[in-house]
Each structure stands twice: as C-alpha cells, then as structure tokens.
Design brief:
InterPro entries: Flavin_Rdtase-like_dom, Flavoredoxin, Split_barrel_FMN-bd. This is Flavin reductase domain protein, FMN-binding. Belongs to the flavoredoxin family. Keywords: Flavoprotein. The chain is an alpha+beta fold and 180 residues long. The termini are far apart. The chain has 4 helices and 11 strands. The strands form 3 sheets. A 7-stranded antiparallel β-sheet has the order 2-1-5-8-9-4-3. It has a two-stranded antiparallel ribbon with strand order 6-7. It has one domain: Electron Transport, Fmn-binding Protein, Chain A (Pnp Oxidase, Chain A, Roll).
Amino acid sequence: MKSLPLERAFTLLEPGPVVLVTTSDERKDNVMTITWTMVLGFSANFAITTGSWNYSYAALEATRECVISIPTVDMIDTIIGIGTCSGQDTDKFQKFGLTPLRGKHVRAPLIKECLANIECRVVDIIDRHNIIVLDGLAAYFDDTRKEKRTLHAVGDGTFIVDGRKIDRKEMMRSKLPSGI
C-alpha cells in the first residue's frame, strides 16, 4: 500500500449523497450544496456539516428548520453552481431555474426538480464539529423522475455516481430491525 497524507483520509470515507439544503429567513429563500451528510440510525434523523461560512447558516440557526433536497446526477452543474456562489448576492432559485414548492411543516421550500425532499427541524447544533442534527418531519419522493442516480462527493472535486443496485434483502432479513 502507498501512503496517503492524513489530511486527505476523509476522501476515503465518502459520506451520503450530495444534497441541496434549503432555508428561508422570512425575506428570502436560499439553497446551499452540502456534501457531508449522515444518517443517524434507522429513523428520520440526520446530520449535516456546515457553519457560519455559509450564508444559509444564519437562517438555519434562527429558524431551526430546513429541507434536505436530493438531486440526481443530471443536476451536477446546478449542484456545483449552487455551491460556488453565495445566496447573499444571488437568487439561486432564479439563477439555476429551480422551482420552489411549499412544504407542509416548514417555511423552507422543497425543490421540484429533485428526486426527493425531506422537511426537517434542527434539534441540535454541535459547534465544535460544525454538525447540525435534524429530525425529519415529512419525506417526498418523485417516482416519476427518470433519472434516479445520486452523486457522492469524494472531496477533491471528483464525484462518484450511484451504480446498479444489488439485492441481498433475503440474506439480511433476519439481521435488519423490523419495518425495514
């Protein structure tokens, strides 16, 4: 094996899919790209990594709500574009042709063009690690959308695209919590 600089070790543990996180601060809806996400157990509890360097963070901290929108591979240029400009001086919904949809539980909008959306409440902010812990309130999935492959950021400007599914449900059935 070849040595890898320790500061690049995070690229080996690629997290969940790249997501778009929407917020609303009563004056303006905004969306940011988040590449570090985490599922917390077998429930609708999640965590994202962000902090005050992101314009959306103030709205997230003040309103304690957001929507996690899950884009697909055909949206890669939009995903990168959203992540490389600031909502402070850009209406990202307009610039990237995104359609905001009203949610049932939070003011932050769902994104129509995404494969799925999860309305969330902030339940904890762990400043030391820039982790926002979220409880999901409602989830939506667009099963009519043709493209369903998601993107995963490696952390060095490259991405991995989901591939084919391999079904081992029967083999794992006795090992999974009930209801899954």
